[in-house]
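fyi for ur records
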Amino acid sequence: MPIPKNLLSPVKESIAGPAASHRRSVVRVLAVDDERAASKLLAIMLRPPDFLCSTAASGEEALQALHREHFDAVISDLQMPGIGGLELLTHVRGCYPHVAFLVTTGVDDVEVGVKAMRSGADDYLIKPLVESAVIASLERALHKRNLEQQVENYRQHLEEMVADRTRQLHQALQQLERSYEDTLQALGAAIDLRDNDTAGHSQRVCRYALEIARAMDWSEEKLGSLAKGAHLHDIGKLGIPDGILLKPGSLTTEERKLMQRHVQIGYDLVKDIAFLADAAEIVLTHHERHDGGGYPRGLTGDQILPSARIFAVADSFDAITSDRPYRRASSFEAGLEIIRGCSGTQFDPQVVSAFLSIPKETWPAIARDDRQRASRPTGLVENKTEALPTLP
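which gave:
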């Protein structure tokens, strides 16, 4: 009996896609039945040139064939000795999920056929088999599996697209973060040039503070906030008049009060910038003291932000070990002792302990590196807000 053309075309397209009509695609079928006559009948129904049907006399033989060759569909009897149809179905679904699977059963075993469909079979055929029913059922099963394959391919492609977009977004964020960091470093350098004769002050203080924070096992996220605050700690000096900021002599009481306002001015400048929200607190509190003698709030101990406590040590240590117009820089060894002597008064003892635990050679190495890279502007005067700690 000839194969109906209206049934054959959709089968071919379901396997090979819309271009199937332009290149004849052979559907490879494996017929499995312990009755040779039944499998041979299927081979006759599913004949070339549109089908290529191989036969197997048992579930074991079918597994070997599946291992050797590619098949688009399996048509298997349910009742077979050894590996039965349901067991074969389980194996095919586990190892060859895109292969269509039809079961054949007698009239009295319809319930078994339904059970097979619940277990993953695409359809069941009742013996005696009719060619048109076999091809129609096979068509539906192949079309279903083809759609599932397309969905799976789309899902995988979508996952690849999402992964690619995620990588692109990550790279963009990294570039943005680098831009932020470069901008903050440049801004810190500009502030240094206006008020500090020691080039690279903000960069050194940032690196000192990060070393201390790492010694205290801070997370990378917290280190990032600390770095932002360190670069911007004196941004409020942009709002201080030159007559006060660059005054060569001592400040009056009123001038000093105005100078101390730079922390509030700086805080107000950056507090509403989302990515600088944490850094803003460092800008505001970096002149607070552990014993309550700092400004602007006179905070004590744990009232002071941990990052500001770390920064206070780093900032003062750089002030001690940097040249000023009115004095030469102290040695790094002397600086360590001064910081140690101010533990519990000006500085948080836990921060000082972490600071002193860091190898001594770390500090001059950082200073040399930054001073070699930094330009040395001339004609600038002392930083009047960097009060050096004194030994008790």
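The domain at 196-373 is CATH 1.10.3210.10 (Hypothetical protein af1432). thats all i got for now
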